Amino acid sequence: MSEYYVCTGCALLCDDIEVDIEGNKVATVHAACRKGVARMKGCSDPMECTVDGEKAEVDTAISKAAEILSDAKNPLIFGHGNSSSEAQKRSIALAKKTGAYIDDTSSFCQGPIVEAILQDKIKTCTLDDVRHKADVIIFWGADPSNSHPRHLSRYSYFPRGKERQRGWEEDRTAITIDVRKSDTAVISGDNRFYQIPMGGDAEFMDALVSALSGKVPKTSYGFDVKRILELSGVLKKAKFGVICVGLGLVYSLEELEPLFKLMNKLNEVSDFNLIPMVGQYNMRGFNHDLFEETGYINRVKFNPETGEAEHGAEQSVVEALRNRSVDAALIIGSDPLSSLPLSVSRYLAEIPLITIDPCQNLTATRSTVTIPCALGGVEAGGTAIRMDGVEIEMKKIVDTDKLSDEEILTRITEAI
Amino acid sequence: MGFGQFLAAPEIKLKIVTYRDVFQNTAQETSRFGEDYEKLSAVIKLDPKDMVKLSIKEGETVVVKNAFGKVVVTAQSSGHEEAHQGIAYMVNGPWSNALVPDETGGTGVPKFKDFEATVQGSKGEKVTGIRDIF
């Protein structure tokens, strides 16, 4: 019988992956998308263990990392989206012990949506519900054909679900609302692609609420009223609808109120759920873990004396770096010098910096200490939370000499 | 060498929207320092009419800059049917992030998908290497 593994290429956490192993390396990956295949085969330039730019033993690097964190008054611990939930919990404990700022990528992407879901402000469902039941699927500011390549084929559009046996040809309608004609918009078709101007999302939501309430939908940018009325007709008739929220929408909304209003209206006239298109494989896991520990999903600073969590925009990674309020940083499974605006992340190169990652990256090139770790889902197992909140168990595929990030964090914590 | 080299290349101000690309993302998984990652990341996609204004052709390099940074990237026609003059697209990565403003209004969220930069033909400058962005 085949053995199936989990792909950690994105937060779909596809669990139907088969692999061929040659010489303790993943040689062939079956069923994953191209991004997943590249992730599971591993990178071509693994990170080396270094201290001050010189090759070092792991024990030495761990001691140096512990020293940096103990010496710092306000350290920052950031990353977490590419770590198992077990490692994330270790990281939260380390932040508590060192009175650190702790944050993750959700702080500047899907955080508000995940928070609203965990606070029961938005109705959600699982990807399995989408596969079996969804007949109207809206991709709003999302382009899964590029960001989550198997979203449409495995869950949202193409599959024959239990209640959707005729699949995309007859049983499902895909709708794309975006500022540009993405690859996903092309799949939705010209009739089902709604191109709105940059920043026009909130108004389009208000217009849809008007249309769903039997009023004339108006936008300041003069979107074709007939098309909005026709779209609202499709949404009203939906038996099981889902909005897949992408970063395009998250960044466009100054507050979530227009989205709440639209969801409430949709659920008066029909049945609609929402799923955030989370990028990194276990970003949502970190949000769940920190929420459980502190009541906040991200942007926390632990008080060094009381261990209490302070939370707010000031505790976010971006503001902490902008305000230069951190004096050392530990980065786990992330490359902020690539993924944050350089105008914000540049400051990291001025402070003692520790990077834990399987692969060499830009942040590592500026780090005082680099500690290579096992690749999650391939060289180390653990649990992770899929974009829809479902917990997924990851099995280790091959052995490695490298420590997992969980073990590295445990050892750093013990050394402090 | 022609007379053109002594003339300033035309410069235009554009709004930039970042997006995701699966091929670039795949290259990133393999190596952030590889040729493929640079080739697929250091790109700006322009409306054909904006390319005419800039007097540049597909595949030539352009200087993209604002108060926050400056990079040299390859110009490509976006291929979108709808005209989008004044708006350009850059794939999310270190090259686009070199230009994203640090202004957040105290929200903790930079404007990754909505910022301005000027674009100008580079007269043959090489694409900025990933190690030179910093």
UniProtKB/TrEMBL annotation, chain A:
Keywords (A to Z) from UniProt: Oxidoreductase
GO cellular component terms, semicolon-separated? membrane
GO terms for biological process, alphabetical = methanogenesis; respiratory electron transport chain
* Any one Gene Ontology molecular-function term assigned to this protein's record: NADH dehydrogenase activity
Output the CDD domains linked to this UniProt entry.
Answer: MopB_FmdB-FwdB
- Asked if the keyword Oxidoreductase belongs to this entry, the reply reads yes
Secretion signal: which residues? Answer: none
Q: Which InterPro entries match?
A: Formylmethanofuran_DH_bsu, Prok_molybdopt-oxidoreductase
The record's listing under PANTHER family reads: FORMATE DEHYDROGENASE H, RESPIRATORY NITRATE REDUCTASE
**Identification of the protein by name:** Formylmethanofuran dehydrogenase, subunit B
UniProtKB/TrEMBL annotation, chain B:
A molecular function annotated in GO for this UniProt entry is: molybdopterin cofactor binding
**Chain ranges passing through the membrane:** none
Which intervals hold domain Molybdopterin dinucleotide-binding? 15-114
Residues folding into a coiled coil are none
Q: Which SUPFAM superfamilies match?
A: ADC-like (SSF50692)
Name of the protein: Formylmethanofuran dehydrogenase, subunit D
